[in-house]
Specification:
single chain; 173 residues; alpha+beta; Nucleoside Triphosphate Pyrophosphohydrolase; two-stranded antiparallel sheet
């Protein structure tokens, strides 16, 4: 059973809940997203496998999931990045934001999303159960693609790339 950390509006842990139940009820919980750039400033994005429990077939950041109640978030981030993308990296925390939205499959995403950033110049070795495709993309091309086809990107990814902290990261690479 995958559990998530429930939090209050100030991000104080208040309990745990089974992941699907939290998404069915729209309970506020912690999540994380990993942004990966290469040394040329291109962002690594992935297309979620069509079989994912929500947002399947949509493009998003390099990796995302939920911290586990029993380990430090940084460890979970490294493990998940390795599991999904085959990347060995220790991304650094940069900011967090809160969002809520209705997803497909009658699920509700209500998360405090911790955003981590790393630099990687290799070629991912993806877990095909998680990732359908991947690419490095320039920020200009990503902005153009997102503007032309916003329905092909996850809700949280669109929020993330428009967040002021994200804009600061891109300008200060």
């Amino acid at each position: 059973m995958d559990s998530v950390i429930l939090v209050d509006e100030n991000d104080n842990a208040i309990g745990i809940m089974e992941k699907m139940e939290a998404h069915e009820k729209g309970q506020l919980h912690r999540a994380f997203s990993v942004i990966v750039f290469n040394s040329q400033g291109e962002m690594l994005i992935q297309k979620r496998a069509a079989t994912k429990y929500h947002s399947g077939g949509l493009w998003t950041n390099a990796c995302c999931s939920h911290p586990t109640p029993k380990e430090e978030i940084e460890l979970t981030v490294r493990k998940r990045l390795r599991y999904e993308m085959g990347i060995e990296l220790s991304p650094q925390f940069v900011y967090k934001f809160v969002y809520q939205t209705n997803l497909d499959q009658n699920l509700i995403e209500h998360e405090v999303d911790y955003v981590f950033r790393g630099i990687y110049d290799g070629e991912p070795v993806v877990n095909v159960e998680e990732v359908e495709a991947w690419k490095f993309i320039s920020m200009a091309d990503l902005a153009n693609e997102m503007a032309a086809n916003p329905d092909q990107y996850t809700y949280w990814f669109k929020l993330m790339v428009n967040h002021p902290e994200f804009q600061y990261l891109v300008c200060n690479q």
